[in-house]
Write a structure and sequence with these properties.
With 166 residues, this protein is of the alpha+beta class. Helix content is 33%, strand content 27%. It is built from five helices and six strands. It has a six-stranded antiparallel beta sheet, sandwiched between helices. A hairpin with a 2-residue loop joins strand 3 and strand 4.
Length: 166
């Protein structure tokens, strides 16, 4: 995770670079890492899930697909609903024994993981992600925050450097 956050620290330039991007975003894949800078929209979240699923399959990482896609949906939905601006960056990185997802946004307010009312239609996503992911965290940055999680797949992911970029 430190090298992923170190790389994502460059994304603190997020505020400088996002203003020129379209809502479709800009995607970059290199080896076992995929990045996208975008303006989050409701329709766009489904497209991002599809792209993440495609990369996980290309990398032979289907073992963590369900939790990864749930986390991607939750974190991007939180950007859309709670951040002051829908600008965000997502980084998906696979390793030999698992993978990370980091969603960075420009809102300095940190998310609160709480117990939602059982009858509530929302408010349970981060608690569910925290329970399903192996590690979940939030890191403050000068321009906002990184919300991230790790999904382990011991013995089920194969070599981290398999697959290629798009």
């Amino acid at each position: 995770m430190p090298e992923l956050l170190a790389h994502s620290a460059v994304q603190d330039a997020l505020g400088r670079s996002l203003s020129s991007r379209s809502s479709a975003g800009r995607s970059h894949a290199l080896g076992a890492q995929w990045e996208l800078t975008l303006t989050v929209t409701e329709r766009g979240i489904a497209r991002i899930r599809h792209a993440v699923r495609a990369h996980l399959r290309r990398w032979d990482r289907e073992g963590a697909e369900a939790v990864t896609l749930l986390g991607v949906s939750e974190l991007l939905t939180n950007v859309l609903r709670h951040a002051h601006t829908p600008e965000a960056r997502i980084v998906v990185r696979t390793e030999a024994d698992g993978g990370y997802v980091v969603v960075s946004d420009l809102d300095r307010r940190l998310p609160v993981v709480g117990a939602a009312d059982l009858l509530s239609e929302d408010g349970r996503g981060l608690a569910l992600l925290e329970a399903l992911a192996d590690v979940f965290g939030v890191t403050s940055t000068p321009s906002g925050k990184h919300v991230w999680f790790r999904v382990a797949c011991p013995g089920g992911w194969g070599p981290a450097d398999s697959g290629g970029g798009t």
